[in-house]
Amino acid sequence: MAKIVTDVVCPFCGTLCDDLEVALSDDGEEILEVYNACTIGATKFLHSQAKDRVTRPQMKQEDGSWKEVTYDEAVEYTANLLVDAKKPLMYGWSSTSCTAQGTGSEIGEIVGACMDNTATVCHGSTLIAVQDVGVPSATLGEIANRADRVVFWGCNPAHAHPRHMSRYSIFPRGFFTGKGSKSRKMFVVDPRNTDTAKMADVHLQLEQGHDYELLSAIRVALRGEALPDFVAGIPKEQIYETAETLRSGRFTVIFFGMGVTHSLGKNHNIDIAIAVTRDLNDYTKAAIVPMRGHYNVTGSGQVWGWQFGFPFCLDLTRGFARYNPGDSSSNDLLIRDEVDAVFVLGSDPGAHFPVGSVKKIAQLPSVCIDPHITPTSAVSKLHVPVAFVGVEVGGCAYRMDNVPIETRKVVEPPEGMLTDEEFLQKVLTRVRELKGAA
Amino acid sequence: MTEYLIKNGFVYDPIQGINGDKVDVAIKDGKMVDAGDVTKPTIIDATGMTVMAAGVDVHAHVAGPKVNVGRNFRPEDKLFNAAAGSGLKRMEGGFSVPTVLRTAYLYARMGFGFSMEAAMPPLYARHTHEEIRDTPIIDQGALPVFGNNWFVLEYLKENEIENTAAYIAWLLNQTKGFGVKCVNPGGTESWGWGMNCETVDDVVPYFDVTPRQIVSGLIAANEYLGLPHCMHVHGNSLGEPGNYEITLDTLKIAEDYSPQNDFGREVVLHNTHLQFHCYGGESYASKSFESKSKEVVEYINSVDNISYDLGVVTLDETTTMTADGPFEHHLSHMNNLKWANTDVELETGSGIVPFIYNPKTFIAGAQWAVGLECGLFIKDPMRAYITTDAPNAGPLCRYPRVYKWLMSAKARDDMLDNTLKYGDKIRERCYIGEIDREISLYELAMMTRAGPAKTLGLGHMFGSLKAGLEGDVAVYPYNPETDTDDPEKIEYAFGNAAYLIKGGRMIVKEGEIVDMGNKRTFWVDAKVNENPMVERDIAEKFRRYYTVTQNNYTVEGHHFVPNPYVIEVDATR
User: Fold this and answer.
1) pLDDT at res. A2
2) Do A91 and A347 contact (CB within 8 A), yes or no?
3) How far apart are CA A153 and CA A149, in angstroms?
4) Does the CA dihedral B401-B405-B410-B413 come out positive or negative?
5) Contact A404 B124 (CB under 8 A)
6) pLDDT tens-digit profile of A129-171?
7) Which ranges form a coiled coil (chain B) (predicted)?
8) Which residues in chain A have Cβ-Cβ distances shorter than 8 Å to B340?
9) Are the beta carbons of B341 and A135 separated by less than 8 Å?
10) Do A139 and B123 touch (CB under 8 A)?
């Protein structure tokens, strides 16, 4: 008889589903099955049980081979790497708990690091836009209970956030949306005919890179002003109709993803998307929500917000926090050869940064703290495997709408393995000793 | 634990009736004791200085989701407002929305020991507690918001006080909350549809209940439970010209209730940031707008079961933030600056807008005057507390400046004559010009420590130097015999405590922060009779309408509240 653990939180994407059920073996040591999760989430749980999992730190040798080292040696290398560097980059922080993020911040403060999270290559432009124009938003439950107009702009939740539509946005029967998807009009704005677009009531298949123009045209249409025959490849009749449908709803929500945050225009696209939302609030109720990726990228922005006042691109090198995306952002620092050591925890820049940046990481003293072997661990000098947050250790995470949920421990990590938090605490202690601040 | 004896200072302790006398103040084992009870104390020489119990802040927004939105969406608030760490202190930053570390250091420098976070969205309670955990030194609590909560709306529509109380008790336990906050009753739920409730008799869409029923029911439930703090209300139509009548309507609801509690609290309703609720006229124009602070405070003077805090406008650039979602939307249309909003499922909403109270405008000056009038018309200073509704009417760091204005008519005249562009107009449209009252140090101690401690139900711990209370003492470099000539000395002294002892530990020594203390999180655990109906309602709402499961809603004490102080209340009958 399998033991079932309920109310398990999925540590994969920003949807942070918290209704998972995990079946364990009788002895509670092995995960047998994961219920309610999407394929990606379930795989994350099951992958923690992989037989070939690395369970001890490994140091890269001169000849490129890996040699197992102890955690103490790994702590020593990491602490020295950070203390010796004039300007270390501490990157990642999106796939770990807020407690670990807080401890990492203390280390970064002591060593005078540049600290950045994965927003720098995904929703960083959103954060900049919010600093420009604010953000009228709502929790996902508010949307499930009220929204009758749902727009997915430049995102594809069917693949990237697989349970988003069923839990929050399209299918749930909420308090004021008792007919579920029949209560809602679904719009998708995407140059691609994605699986999400195929489900939409209206698919605005705009020309790639013309999001700003289309959003601007919607603002024009909302004001009842004249439009040219086509904007971004969309006929003006359809734009007027879209504007009218959004305005006539009781509650409109715009979800947006990296199709707009990282296409031409970047933060300006988000500025105007937020402006459309503001405009709609003059007629009805409207909210806009970024589709955050990692399960706790939002949390790292929150922790840094209350500790330093900025959500990403922190430069702590002068003894107080400075913030200047484009200057203090990871890729800019790497490409300009401004950092002399790289520390990565809870993300995989090796897979997602431009190859020029990855080459720099490979040349520098570097450490990668990650349960998996990743492209980043492969180019780093030291790889420190740690327990899976949300599977083998609990800890707080923030959903894409900033709602905090505490992830749960389901099984024990492999014997002798440290968690992110434990490893960081050891590094912090050692850094303090090296700095004479103990 | 170290013993302290503070000698030769001018002591102000209204609870013990000490009014500037040179009395020795002693601390032993973290508590106040009689001076004769210490044996080998560390002596603090407070010659020429003012000694009071540590300050108690009844209402400030210093931790939680909307505060953090304020921090993150205003990088400009850190510009020229950052400081490197030194000694024990970590780096700090921010002016109107400081980082949690700067918040703690600010309070310590101002001689405060306790602060109440005035609005906690229950779904975000975990976030609020994470920030509170990371704020050292000061003790804190947080008030969850109830005025737009679906459970409350549904129960109070039918006047089900016992069920409301059972739900409140459950939510305080789940969120580790301290008491009952009510912001724009009914209005924020209406904002879910882009609407508002502007008077106490407007009906909330769908829920068919009025703000009057909500305020009345929440007071009744609060007294049913016998909570330490009274019902804490931010009424309808905040900031609107002509709103004083709505404020009076709200306050009069309290006439039907008397306090029922074991904590020495004598009021049933606390009206927060009264300044924003005392406006007459029909517009913000100088020919229409007028102060109605006298009318409102006179009513409060005529009853004995209402307290309030001032919410003084400090004429700074600041960041407004409130669970009054529709108000912030309205405000964003007034100044066209950036606007953040978050509606929280089944519970509440919030908005954040930067704001500049420009002394060159009539209305900012008039708001400044109204706030001070609220403090100067009070007959019983134990029921009027000095706040800036930080950061709404002004940043936290401006408290000492507000003391200066309240304590010195000269300082007020200087503002009206030399700083405010429309000083004469403000004298004409407000009462400020006809008031020569100056708040004394004794009254200041009532309005910043003894009074708020009492209304929070914490008079048995804070607000006085009486033996047995917490060992929280502030010493300010202000000589009441020789420093009265210059109001600037007031502002300097109360922003630069010479000493702060908190829970028997020396936090500030000779003006420097030397200890991060042992901060506690206060919350109230109210026991009620088993209530299967409310339990079923909660389970049903979570199953159908919340996006977190009921089991994932609870703020776990072990993690987020590492040093809790639990006040137990037994409402089982």
Assistant:
1) 80
2) yes
3) 13
4) positive
5) yes
6) 999 999 999 999 999 999 999 999 999 999 999 999 999 999 9
7) none
8) 130, 134-137
9) yes
10) yes
Pairing of strands A251-256, A234-235: unpaired
The model's pLDDT over A252-273, given as tens digits with 9 standing for 90+, comes to 999 999 999 999 999 999 999 9
Rg (CA), chain B: 22
Q: Does A278 touch chain B (CB under 8 A)?
A: yes
Interface test with B, best of A139, A171, A253 (most B CBs within 10 A): A139
Distance between CA atoms of B295 and B380, rounded to whole angstroms?
Answer: 16
Chain A residues 175-194 with a CB less than 8 Å from chain B: 175-176
Residue A1, pLDDT score: 64
Chains A and B form CB pairs within 8 A to the count of 189
Nearest by CB: A135 against B82, B91, B340 = B340
Q: Which structure tokens are listed for B510?
A: 């000779």
- Encoding tokens for residue B216? 């009345």
B77 inside 8 A of chain A by CB: yes
> Which one of A130, A163, A403, A428 makes the best mutation probe of the B interface by having the most chain B beta carbons within 10 Å?
A403
B73 contact residues in A (CB cutoff 8 A): 130-131, 134-135
Are A406 and B552 inside 8 Å of each other by CB? yes
> CB–CB of A18 and B123 under 8 A?
no
Chain B segment 229-268 residues within 8 A of A by beta carbon are none
With beta carbons less than 8 A apart as the criterion, state whether A328 and A89 touch.
no
Q: Is the preceding omega at residue B477 within 30 degrees of 0, hence cis?
A: no
Give me the percent of chain A exceeding a pLDDT of 90: 98
Q: Among A45-49, B6-10, B149-153, whose mean pLDDT is lowest?
A: A45-49
For the stretch B261-282, pLDDT in tens is 999 999 999 999 999 999 999 9
Chain A residue closest to B129 (CA)? A404
Give the torsion through C-alpha atoms of A93, A98, A104, A106, to 10 deg. Answer: 140
Confidence tier at A438 by pLDDT (50, 70, 90): low
B130 touches chain A (CB under 8 A): yes
**Residue among B562, B523, B547, B545 nearest B169 (CA):** B523
B344 near A CB under 8 A: yes
Amino acid at B209: V
**Which A positions 85-144 lie with beta carbon below 8 A of chain B?**
98-99, 102, 106, 109, 127, 130-142, 144
Q: Which residues of A touch B77 (CB under 8 A)?
A: 309
Give the dihedral sign, CA B383/B389/B390/B395: negative
Q: How high is the pLDDT of residue B331?
A: 97
Nearest Cα to Cα of residue B20 among B56, B57, B48: B48
pLDDT digits (tens, 9 = 90+) for B172-206: 999 999 999 999 999 999 999 999 999 999 999 99
| Tens digit of each residue's pLDDT (9 = 90 or more) over A54-112 | 999 999 999 999 999 999 999 999 999 999 999 999 999 999 999 999 999 999 999 99
The tokens describing A255, both together, are: 């979800």
The position carrying tokens 């969205």 is B121
pTM of this prediction?
A: 0.98
Q: How much is the ipTM here? A: 0.97
Of B82, B332, B343, the CB nearest to A321: B82
